[in-house]
């Protein structure tokens, strides 16, 4: 072969593309653009919905061994424990029956007072039962996944309750499952009412509490708040129905160097270990229709002449 026909270019094995720094800069900029676009335009929402729908059978199969193990443990429960649970349930049922009779009487009185004052009746709230599938694997948030999604009528913002009180709020909805953010999450807030004094406030998730608690913020140091006060939903946000139990005041710290008191509350709902919940429809404040303008005699006659 003549020497002039030899190719002087290096073989493909030794050819180099863009530098490592150029690749790092390009992919970093692309990642930042996608994150901003997802937050502002929610371009990743269809992808997340599709992935969640596709992975639902895999999640269901992965949870089968856990469900079988729990079912086997419950099946081999001894007779003494079952009898004790039945006796406890009978006592709780009798107490609930007494309270139900009292609630019916108070509801009748409340309805009569509302009719006398010509107040708007409360809107009925629909609810559906759901089961907690698993906790979200995120150490920096407090969220759970329930087995009800948009196909069952669950919408974002729906309040979620357990047998003790408000547990959290639906923050993300998929076709067959939904994500619930607990009240103890640091980014969650709920308007509350002190049933003893009638003072409204705002409870936030306490991120400094390891066991999961609430903090009643922006309350003056001179505010009438005592340990053991019951906090319920105030209903001013148009999401949570009024009167739902939320928490009890656990600790009150009044500091001279601060104008606000540090109030720590303990949630009534089970922040961990809850199994069955109720999902409510978000409440919307009804808007009363505008009254018709009053017709004066002069305006009526003038209108008749025309």
Description of the molecule:
There is one protein chain. The chain is an alpha+beta fold and 306 residues long. It folds into 3 domains: 20-76, no CATH class; 88-118; 125-285, Rod shape-determining protein MreC, domain 1 (Thrombin, subunit H), CATH 2.40.10. Helices cover 33% and strands 23% of the residues. The strands form 2 sheets. Strands 1-2-5-4-3-12 form a 6-stranded antiparallel β-barrel. The chain has a 6-stranded antiparallel barrel with strand order 6-7-8-11-10-9. Strand 10 and strand 11 (262-267) form a beta hairpin. It is globular, with a radius of gyration of 29 Å.
What's the helix-strand series? HHHEEEEEEEEEEEEH
Taking the sheet with the most strands, its summary is: 6 strands, antiparallel, barrel
* Known CATH architecture of the largest domain: Beta Barrel
Share of residues in helices: 25-40%
Spatial extent as radius of gyration: 29 Å
Low-pLDDT stretches:
119-123, 285-291, 299-306
Percentage of residues in DSSP E strands: 15-25%
Structure class: alpha+beta
Overall mean confidence score, pLDDT: 80
Which key features would you list for this structure?
single chain; 306 residues; alpha+beta; Thrombin, subunit H; 3 domains; six-stranded antiparallel β-barrel; six-stranded antiparallel barrel; 4 helices; 12 strands; 23% strand
């Amino acid at each position: 072969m003549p020497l002039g026909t030899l190719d002087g270019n290096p073989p493909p094995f030794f050819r180099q593309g863009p530098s490592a720094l150029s690749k790092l800069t390009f992919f970093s900029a692309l990642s930042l653009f996608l994150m901003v676009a997802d937050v502002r335009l929610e371009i990743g929402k269809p992808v997340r919905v599709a992935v969640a729908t596709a992975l639902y059978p895999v999640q269901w199969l992965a949870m089968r061994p856990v469900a079988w193990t729990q079912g086997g443990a419950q099946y081999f429960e001894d007779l003494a424990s079952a009898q004790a649970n039945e006796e406890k349930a009978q006592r709780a049922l009798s107490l609930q029956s007494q309270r139900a009779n009292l609630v019916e009487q108070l509801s009748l009185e409340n309805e009569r007072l509302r009719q006398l004052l010509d107040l708007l009746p409360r809107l009925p709230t629909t609810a559906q039962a759901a089961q907690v599938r698993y906790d979200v694997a995120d150490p920096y948030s407090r969220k759970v996944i329930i087995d009800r999604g948009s196909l069952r009528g669950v919408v974002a913002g729906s309040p979620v309750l357990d047998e003790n009180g408000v547990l959290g709020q639906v923050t993300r909805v998929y076709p067959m499952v939904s994500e619930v953010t607990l009240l103890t999450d640091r980014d969650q807030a709920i308007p509350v009412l002190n049933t003893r004094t009638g003072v409204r406030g705002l409870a936030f998730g306490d991120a400094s509490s390891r066991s999961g608690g609430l903090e009643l913020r922006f309350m003056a140091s001179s505010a009438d708040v005592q340990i053991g006060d019951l906090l319920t939903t105030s209903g001013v946000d148009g999401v949570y129905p009024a009167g739902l139990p939320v928490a009890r005041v656990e600790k009150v710290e009044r500091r001279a160097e601060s104008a606000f008191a540090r109030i720590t509350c303990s949630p009534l709902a089970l922040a961990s270990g809850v199994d069955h919940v109720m999902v409510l429809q978000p409440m919307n404040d009804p808007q009363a229709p505008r009254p018709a303008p009053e017709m004066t005699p002069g305006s009526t006659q003038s209108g008749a002449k025309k």
